[in-house]
């Protein structure tokens, strides 16, 4: 379970508020997060694995305060970025997954076997020794996902994981993410994908503007974008 307890974020340099004090209990298996650019979606999900720390309040994952137990929390919470280049470091696919496993498996040959198994599971078994640069954008996103999943997180945060992908890869990566045996928190601008979650948060102007059923959330978001509703009561 993920719990936000009045967690707020201000910009470190300017002190400008980025996320207002927010309280949430996130228990559903698949939660989508939508909202306009710059609303605070990435900030909200980064609080869950300690990439951003709250300026006030706290965030807990399975009862662990993220600010105090970062390394433990990051073994529970995997994070997939929009651009796989942000998390692919090694020259070949298998070496990259082996790097993810460096803290969990000591022996190199066992690490290689586990990395190959992780690649096979995700459909990249035949690409193991291929240069990361020779992979397509979709294959690179799958490789980043293989590295995250190799360490068996129970929660997966995916921050716009399909934004850079074409329609076919978007469908493939999207359905793969939804089939994983993890709690999936997905930030997305793809409203069809958002609507497949069990619960959807609309984030706007540094706060939760709507929290509830995906169909209603998507309708609210459209109304918000086209000025038919306003998040804040008018002055
Ligand atoms: N470290 C920081 N210092 C100053 N401002 C920041 C910092 N991090 C985020 N912001 C600002 O906070 C706001 C929310 O950013 P965030 O990336 O969380 O939004 P987002 O909803 O994920 O946007 P997008 O859909 O464009 O990715 C933006 O205006 C951003 O410029």
From TrEMBL:
<dbReference type="Pfam" id="PF00005">
    <property type="entry name" value="ABC_tran"/>
</dbReference>
<dbReference type="InterPro" id="IPR027417">
    <property type="entry name" value="P-loop_NTPase"/>
</dbReference>
<dbReference type="GO" id="GO:0042626">
    <property type="term" value="F:ATPase-coupled transmembrane transporter activity"/>
</dbReference>
<feature type="domain" description="ABC transporter">
    <location>
        <begin position="2"/>
        <end position="230"/>
    </location>
</feature>
<comment type="similarity">
    <text>Belongs to the ABC transporter superfamily.</text>
</comment>
<dbReference type="GO" id="GO:0005524">
    <property type="term" value="F:ATP binding"/>
</dbReference>
<protein>
    <submittedName>
        <fullName>ABC transporter ATPase</fullName>
    </submittedName>
</protein>
<dbReference type="InterPro" id="IPR050095">
    <property type="entry name" value="ECF_ABC_transporter_ATP-bd"/>
</dbReference>
<keyword id="KW-0547">Nucleotide-binding</keyword>
<dbReference type="GO" id="GO:0016887">
    <property type="term" value="F:ATP hydrolysis activity"/>
</dbReference>
<keyword id="KW-0067">ATP-binding</keyword>
<dbReference type="GO" id="GO:0043190">
    <property type="term" value="C:ATP-binding cassette (ABC) transporter complex"/>
</dbReference>
<dbReference type="InterPro" id="IPR015856">
    <property type="entry name" value="ABC_transpr_CbiO/EcfA_su"/>
</dbReference>
<dbReference type="InterPro" id="IPR003593">
    <property type="entry name" value="AAA+_ATPase"/>
</dbReference>
<dbReference type="InterPro" id="IPR017871">
    <property type="entry name" value="ABC_transporter-like_CS"/>
</dbReference>
<dbReference type="InterPro" id="IPR003439">
    <property type="entry name" value="ABC_transporter-like_ATP-bd"/>
</dbReference>
<keyword id="KW-0813">Transport</keyword>
